Amino acid sequence: TLAAFPKKIELATEDDATSVLKINALNIGDNVNSSPHIVGGYQYKSSARSYKSRNSLDNADVAKLKPRKKLTLDPTQECTPNKGHSDRIRVYVRIRPISKKEKEVGARCCVKAANGKEIYLTEMALESDYLRLKRLKGRYFIFDGAFPENTNQEEVYRTSTEQLVEAVLEGKNSSVFCYGATGAGKTFTMLGTMKDPGVMVLALKDLFAKLKQRSSEGEHSVRLSYLEVYNETVRDLLSPGRALVLREDLKQGIVAAGLTQYKACSADEVMALLQQGNQNRTTEPTRLNETSSRSHAILQIFVEYSARVGVSLVSRTGKLSLIDLAGSERAIATDQRTLRSLEGANINRSLLALSSCISALVEGKKHIPFRNSKLTQLLKDSLGGSCQTAMIANISPSNMSFGETQNTLYWADRAKEIRTKGCVTN
Ligand code: ADP
Ligand code: MG
Question: Where in this chain does the record put each Kinesin motor domain (predicted)?
């Protein structure tokens, strides 16, 4: 069980202490009974039992790893996320349950969440795949939160988004993203199902509950818009029609001209509205039954507050943007060089631009290239600066998605380093 994961972890080198712990080095194929041997720098004593247990990441296997040079680190103390940085961006990882289809094709679990914040990733090489044997390695990450497979929607909402709803009530702008490959659980996390509503619906539900408590303080009104960015075209998901043009408004910032804003009164009515909106998301010609893996859906919730204090009128508006991003599988790039080479290919410009903005924010650059895409233009007032952001990286537990999971985790690991102080937006 998860609790059995070692609290104190022995690391091989000081470098590893920053974010990476090589953990798993399991024998495969012919090597089942040879022991001990060294893989990935670790001496690992194999046994018949470990052969059996390689079907999943086993705590006993992790505990058995012997690093060459000992250095003890308590990850919860030494590796706190955002150390030295602002806590305005929080990064969470959610592992979805393994699917029936994955089980049927013999997929095994290659990732595990532990102690609320830790993610362990281990490559389970296929027996026939000899070359991958050489690259067998494990990784260890710490985030602001790590949600295991059995985490429910309410828990994800409370941990990642509730505090942002509070911020919006105070007139601040905040944003929540779901990032990850297609099928990793982004839409489930954001929208959810009628039976099991996700962050978008739970945030609105909670917002109405909080407003009820504050009803004596002044007037509040809630408006919402639901839009899509697909192929650099912005469309209204609640009132589908022609493409919308983005323009800069002195007071409101970047706005999509003609976008409908709904006055919302209850969360139930909103769920039906959003489900309807999701039906309007663009589908790719080759995958007619699926909502597109290349479209970004953005729910904007505006909370306007006004009250009379003495003789003057106090008013403020906060905006919460909840974003179900396009699948990251074709646009994963963690460094500028890869970003540029990918930009030449006709892949998702908005997702790449978002990665560039995050890179620029991570590096503490003065100029953040928000203008490079429709998505980043729309997020200009909700990312960086004094805005609070929650990033939920969604991953599949299956070893068949290992590459995508690894890329998503690297991306998320980098995102948590964002410094929001001193950024100048263009
Ligand atoms: P994405 O939007 O990232 O492409 P989806 O949210 O559509 O992925 O998830 C893919 C499938 O997995 C869907 O059938 C969804 O219902 C299911 N799923 C995803 N996350 C969970 C979860 N946490 N619990 C149960 N089912 C999930
Ligand atoms: Mg989706």
Answer: 88-418
